[in-house]
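Lab channel / #folding
Pinned by the channel admin:
"Please post every new chain as: sequence first, then the structure tokens as a reply. Keep commentary short and put observations after the output so the thread stays searchable."

First post following the new format, from NK:
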Amino acid sequence: MKPVSSTRAVVAALALFALCSRAGSALASPASEAAFAEGQTLMSAKHLPEASAKFETAVAADPKFASAWYALAVARRRLGQCTGAIAAYRRYAALAPDEPEPYYGLGLCLRDTGDKAGAIEALKHYVAIEKRPASERWVDHAHGVLAELGAQGTAPAEKAAVGGDAAVAAKGPPKGAAGASPSSPSSPTSPANPAYVEAQALRDHGHIDEAIAKFHQAIAADPRHMAARAALGELLLKIRRDDEAIEVFRAALDKNAGYPLAWYDLAFAFRARGRSAEAVDAYQHYIKLRPTDPDAYYGLGRALQRLGRKADSRKAYETYVSMERRPSEKRWVESAQTQIQLLASAAP
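Reply from TO:
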């Protein structure tokens, strides 16, 4: 099952497992891979000190094992060991210079250690190179942190219109979608930003109940802060409160039916609950809003496959394979190709 895209590990240690899946371990020995796998298991169980020790073992054995460096950075940051996390993030960035993720965590750690200039530099680099539509919430959060740090020129650029909606988007939101308010998550002046930033920090340090309360506080301060709603829903998914997450995503869409990420997350939540028909509908809404993003076609294929709609499922997988060109997504392309072969062999 392909996880939620931008960080694609919402259901099992969100940021960590997604990036580790993408970074690969071609340079890892069997021993370091074993230590890394044990570390992931420990991380999922929230045994952070033990997980960190396993990742340290992995990078000691294979200093070019990029995934292990990233995992070590995440573990250290969650333990509040930002100095060690900064070093690990930088090692990962050197090994995988085209990946945007380390600069997000690096920026937050530099902020927490008082290096304001370094934090601004890292977060600006992150928002400059992170172009995946499903990572919009993290980009929004980075902009919020930059605003808190007093960085200049940090307002996010207007999103380009996609598909045939260009003329409509130039005039305003599509019919049936709520327009962006002056205090939308793309605005550094939203009254929700301080609570939103604090909620992210609480979540990243494992203070889940406090983070949930703070996300709710942010939403109360600015009901149209879509990034706060998305982050809350994804956190609820991560801790297996799926039904609550579904309600959060639905409430977000009540406020802004044109917010793509809420449709994507809602589709994933429905699929996690086995509500495949509703997942298909939500994926199709997302695709209408973001037709050039391949990720939804993979999830759509999985949902259609569960419904027994083999021909439609195969078509969705084939669309995904034809559109997906990012080297980091090779794992998912191969998975889709496997499903295409299985569906073809089962065809009458």
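NK: The domain at 1-156 is CATH 1.25.40.10 (Serine Threonine Protein Phosphatase 5, Tetratricopeptide repeat).
TO: also worth noting, Residues 3-26, 153-186 have pLDDT under 50 and may be disordered.
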